[in-house]
Each structure stands twice: as C-alpha cells, then as structure tokens.
Amino acid sequence: MRERHIGASCKLFFKSDPLKIVRASKQYMYDEAGNEYLDCINNVCHVGHCHPAVVKAGWEQAQVLNTNSRFLHDNIVLLAQKLSSLFPSKLQVCYFTNSGSEANDLAIRLARIHTKHNDTIVIDHAYHGHTWEVLGLSPYKHKSRDDLPDWCHIVENPDAYRGKYTSDEHADLGTKYADEVAAKIAEIQASGRSVAAFFAESIQSCAGQVFLPEGYLRQVYKHVRAAGGICVADEVQCGFGRVGSPHWWAFQLQGEDIIPDIVTIGKPMGNGHPVAAVITTAEIAESFNKSGVEYFNTYGGNPVSCAVALSVIKVLEDEKLREHAKEVGEYMLEKLKEMSNRHSLIGDVRGIGLFVGIELVKDRVTKEPASAIAQHVIFRMKESRILLSADGPHRNVLKLKPPMCFSKANVDSVFALLNTVLTEVREVKAEHIQSAVHALMGGANGPIRGELRQTESCRINSSKPPAKKLRKI
Amino acid sequence: MRERHIGASCKLFFKSDPLKIVRASKQYMYDEAGNEYLDCINNVCHVGHCHPAVVKAGWEQAQVLNTNSRFLHDNIVLLAQKLSSLFPSKLQVCYFTNSGSEANDLAIRLARIHTKHNDTIVIDHAYHGHTWEVLGLSPYKHKSRDDLPDWCHIVENPDAYRGKYTSDEHADLGTKYADEVAAKIAEIQASGRSVAAFFAESIQSCAGQVFLPEGYLRQVYKHVRAAGGICVADEVQCGFGRVGSPHWWAFQLQGEDIIPDIVTIGKPMGNGHPVAAVITTAEIAESFNKSGVEYFNTYGGNPVSCAVALSVIKVLEDEKLREHAKEVGEYMLEKLKEMSNRHSLIGDVRGIGLFVGIELVKDRVTKEPASAIAQHVIFRMKESRILLSADGPHRNVLKLKPPMCFSKANVDSVFALLNTVLTEVREVKAEHIQSAVHALMGGANGPIRGELRQTESCRINSSKPPAKKLRKI
After folding, report:
1. What interhelical angle do B321-342 and B408-427 show, nearest 10?
2. ipTM
3. What are the structural domain ranges in chain A?
4. Which residue of B has its CA nearest to A94?
5. pLDDT tens digits for A6-46?
6. Of A62, A71, A131, the CB nearest to B13
C-alpha cells in the first residue's frame, strides 16, 4: 500500500526491514509486537515522545479555538513574548510558520528585502529545508555544486577533524575558516554580485555533527555585515536547549556577544506538532513591512500551534531539561572518550549537550571514512533495539540527538552495545562484513539515501587485520 | 504586545477595531464578552470550528505517537489510500506537507523534474502561497507584473463578468480564454523557453471568486500537454467538497474527463491543523524518484496530521456535508438572485455549493467596482456580528466560504442583514458614506491589505441618487 500511494522519494529508515512503530513515550518507541526501542535520534519529539503536558495543551486549545492569526489571540502574543525573552533583546519580532523549511524560506525573503542584495553564502553540505528556494541553499541535497543556483555560494565546512584546516595542523581554526568566508565575499563582489545573507546552522547537523570553531561566527558576522549582508542562524535542529544550560541556542556557544540578525527555529518547537518561527530585529521587520507585501501563513501562529509551543518551553523549564542535557551530555562525552581509546574505528568524538557525533574511520591516519561500517553498526544496534543514525558527507558519523529526557542509564545501554558491536566489527573478517553489509543494506540502494552507493561498502583490507591497527594507536 | 513582537506584515482582519476571538464552535465564533459571530469566511475550519470528532482524533493519536514518516505507520497509508479513492484513478501517489504553500512549492518541483521544462503559466491575480518560489507564481502578491520572475507567465483571468471576454458579449468563453493560453504558450516557445506547468485554482478565489467557463480546462489542458507541460489544479481553497455533491473537487465541475496531472490540497484538510498534500500520477512520482533526491518533510504525513485529515474526510461523509453544501448553496444562490433584483449595487452573483461571490458595482453598465462600499458593508455586517470578507483585484467581491455546516437559517440571517445594509447604502448620501468609510477603514491604510488606497474610497455620485439607478434596472 505504501509503495502504491506514497511517493518513493519519501524514504524510510531501515528500508530493507523497516520498523513499524505504533506507540512512543519519553525516549522509547514500541513496535507492533510491543518491542521497546531506545530512540537516540528523534530531535523533534524534544521533551519526550507524546509528553502528556504538551498533548494536553494542544488538546485543550483545539477544543476551544483553532483559527488563523487574522484575529487577536493571547497565545500568539504570549508565545512571541516568551520566545523573545529567550533571545538577546535585539531579536524581538516573530513570524510563525509550520516548518523549519518555511521559516528558512521566509528568512531568505527578509534578508533580500532588507539588504536589497540577492546572494547567499552557505556552509558546504548544509541542509536548510525542502522548499524550492531553500533547497537552493542546501548543498547536501545536490549531487554536484553545479546544480546549485548561481546566487548560492559555498564556503568550507569548518570541520576541525576532516575539513580543509584541522586541529592537528592549525591553531586558530576560527580565523582560518572565517578567512575563507571573507575570500568568498571578495569573490562574490568581484563578480559584481552582492551578499544578502550568510546562512549557517549553529552546529552543522547533516554536514556531520560539526561544531563551529571558536571565534568563527564573530569574524564571519563581521565580514558579512561589512559587505552589507545579514547573518542567519538556523537553529531548527540544534535549538531549544539541546546544547545544555545555560544556553537556549547553539549560536550562544560562540559567545554572548554573537547576535544573529535572524534566527530560524522549528523541529523541537512543537514536540512533533508542525510549528516553527523566524525571529528577527525590529529593523528587518520594518523593512519587510515597508515592502507593502503582507505575510499571511494560514496555520502559522494559530492558537493550537502556539499553545503547544508554549507548553514545550514550559516543560523544558519545569523539568530543567537544559540542565539535564548538560549533565547527561558531559557524561556521554566522557564515556565516548574512554571508548575511543578502545576502538580505533572511532576517529573523532564531539558533542555538546545532547548533540553528539561519533566519526568512524577505517584508519586514524588517513581518516578514510568507515561509511559501510557505520551502516552496519546502525543495523546491529537496531537489531538490539537501539535506534541510531549516521550523517555527514560520507555518512560515517553516528549521530545522537535523542529526546531531552535521555538518561545516563540510556547512555550506558547505548555504549555497552556500541562497544560490543565495534568489537565484533574488529574481530569479524572483512569479507564477512562486506556480504553482511550488502544484505543488510538491501542491495544496491542505501538504506536511507539513494545517494549512498554500493561502491562505498566496506573496504577494510583483510591483509591488515583490524586488531593490528588497533595496536598501532 | 502584538505590535512589539509580531511582524507588522502579518495583518489582522478589521485592523482599526480587531476582534479578539476566544472560542469557536461549528459556524460560530465568540469574542471575550461572549458575543456570537456568524463566520461566513473560514474555509479552513471546514467541518465546523473545533469539530469534536476531529479534535478527538488528533488528541487520541497525539497521546500515542507523533513522529516523522521515516517509520511505517498505518495512518499515512490509510490517508493516502482514502485520498486516492476520492480522485480519478490516475491520481494515486501522495506527498504530505504542512501547508498549501509547501504543496504548491513541491508541485513546481515535480513539474520541472518531470517535464525538464522550467516556466509556468498562471492566471492573473492568482495566489498560490507564500514560499519564495510559489510567490513567483502569485500575481496577486505583486504590485506590478514586472516584479514577477521571468519564468512566470500570466494569462487572463477567465472572468465572465469583468474579464477581457464577458458573457454579455461572447459565446463560448471557454474557448476564448483557452485560446489566450494557447497564444501565451506560442509566445513562450517563440522566446526559446518551455512550459513546465499550467497552475490554476479550480475556482479563482483571491482573484475574485471567479468560476472557470465551460470547456476551459479541457482546452487549456490540451494546449499545455501538447507543449510538453503538465496541468496543476490548486484545490487548497476550493477542494474537499466545498462545491457540493457529487463532487469532491472543483476541477470536476469542468467535466468528468478533466484529470489534472497534479492536485494540491490544503486548508480544509485538517480543519485548522497544519496538513496538506500533493497528489499526482505514478509517472510523475517516478520521475521525481529517479532524480535521486529524497523528499523529506519532517512533520509531513505524521500520524497525528494523518489522523486529523482522515477524521475530516470521515465527518464530511458521515454528516453528508457535500450534499448539505449543495442544498444550502442552491438556496443561497436563489436568495442572492432575488436580492440582486432589489439592489443595483449587486453587479453579479456567482457560486456553487458554499463558494459564493457577490460583486458590488457602482454602476451596472460601467461595472465600476464599489470597493469602498464593499468595505463598508463588511464593517456594518461585523457590527451586527456577521463576518464577511471581500476579494478580487478591486476588493469589491464579497465572499462567502463558510464552514460546511452553514445552514439555510444562516443564509437567511446574512441576507436579511445584507439587504438592510445595502438599503442603507442606497439611502445615505454619498458624502456621509465617504467619511464613515474613512473612519471605519482606520485612515489611509486599508483594513486588511495596505495596497487598498484611500483613493479607491466611495465615489458614488450624489447627483445620481441610487434610487434612480435602481429603477433603471
């Protein structure tokens, strides 16, 4: 039925053996047979699947009124006021949308109207959403840079582990990578074009769970503003306290003086309910208003969406989930660092709060991505009912972005199993892995993105047993 | 608070004296003081505000599971299957989104990928949504045609009352207006460009509640397909049975043989909950799939959105609301025709089911739009707690698109009051109206769109008393 009626472009997790989840609560999901899965990846159901307070808030409002924002209503104002209070005071005007994609789409529009410029700068491998224009600033979704529109300019992913400049070889990566942005701006201007905006997730997610190096945004924002552009922080995946207290937003990791001109928020905001927003300055909002074009979003800011979002923020505060994220995140990082001493497959671990990446490599010196092994690990974890996923251009970075109630005991379960699986991988002969991976991946098509080709499957050289490699380190 | 925190580009109804609605049920809304308003315009809360069955369906599912469509779930398949069953059998593949704008945005993408062409043809004054690319095919949102992108080509609004060809002067308007599309295609091709899609609402809404003339789509679709383009029917405002039984979709009014290649649906689909969809053919879905780019919409097709949409369809069926819309719509048209005999201000009445337009003119011969009078009527109706609105390029077309449970008694109330207000207008001296309108409209800015200039305010010539004009007819 799904094959007949749902577009095949909508991919499932675990394509060869997809999960049918029928129920979820907190950080757990349950299949038809009642099996419990630990959810390490759902960054939408932020305060826990089906959180009763959030469900109740939506339900109560839905019974009373759910109309568009053409009428005055307390909820939209209360939410805007609450959100503004979580941002630096300059960011005070909200526009409500139904998805992060709609929010980023509107951000492009605001940037162009305000600056009267057209072009954008984005980080390589970035993903900002699925509308036509937003796809134009999402290198992640294009097979070739040539497929991107001419107004989109890509700068290096400031990846300290695998990027153009690495922490092994360079000090002050922030300046190194910011200089790349300055050079790109010069190039854009030399070609007679102009920069409307610099768009960046405050932590690169699809691009491989990459944290911005210290000082990066401070310098980039200076360069962009000097060119008459504005700075957009995409917090759709990393916002709402995921990075742990004291912060609400990941851009704050770059310093209290870092204030974007526009912030876009989404996924976690409704704990699954479609609600998202753009927060900007009074000046940018005024430019938009002066353009004379009304912005009307039928469902955006409706009383139910606002009630749900208000409730999510309240739960984050009442249950001290940012503090919890900080504590569990620190515990997780510590455990991960220990584990990386035991497994040479782990090339890098990085994380803040409940936003963690584990980069798997075949060789710590060459850093050859262990893409197929990452897929194998994910499938083995799933067999044992732990849901993980991988991202990054090589799909070799295991990601953990669990609901915010994820516990230390959950960390222990995940890492105990991960330890077992990585040990197995080390011990099993390469050819066995290769055939197992092939079967698990369901043949020529990758389990999630068709782009992952079979040519990327396991290439561990059986003449170099992994055990030896381990000893090298 | 709203002024400080909500972008001023988000406009309120009745700006000078906005309504604060706190509760709604069926076709009624209630303000803070408990005053009841009859809602004649909310085409989102389709089966009635806060319909208990729909609220319950959303609430029950939200308690159990609300995750993304990466996992198998019955609801998404059941909804896709149900929707497909409401369309001609060729339309069988669904993509779920959160808004009509996202649906139309995806439709552009599908059209371009499938046809390998780029340009679109749209009807003048059309509105298809608020994302960047969709704004590009929404002449309604642009002050000048020059502001539209070069890939968007406008054809005449096939308006039998006020268009280039009118039913007074021409027979076979369908052919006349379809020939305009053929000519536009020739022009596009002569300039070395190519047509990806013809986009049209199946009834023009923002463009003035305009019904397509008989035979229009049959011929247009032929021309567009001959040029290698595809045909998109935007049913976001007019779909889901609003036109009355036996139809589910307004494109069906053009004949059972009319089958669009893509249909987009939205607003009424979730009765206020953000859910929308694209329905297309297996061939177009396959072209999209072959492009190798995954389509992932975080909330699109989530179990709650699907449960809500399934429930809306069930209520439409259980409560026989399409049959009801047909019956009440016929009654309304009959009453309106009677009333137009009494009021020369009514230039034209048109409607099918619960999609009705009443075009106000200052003079039936010149058809000069009575834009300010329309605003005056709306404000007077609101004073008596009936919510109406106006649309069309001159904003002189009163529109009625009420929840589907709107009754004959509601029709009687609306038309009794409308009769009173139109009689007042006829009797009051023009200069009085002019100052009253000015005050009611809150000064130089129109109540809803800033574009409505004061220069459009009432220009009834007091030397020609309306009473005389009435006798002329």
Report:
1. 20
2. 0.89
3. 2-39+321-472, 52-318
4. B6
5. 888 888 877 778 889 999 999 999 999 999 999 999 999 99
6. A71
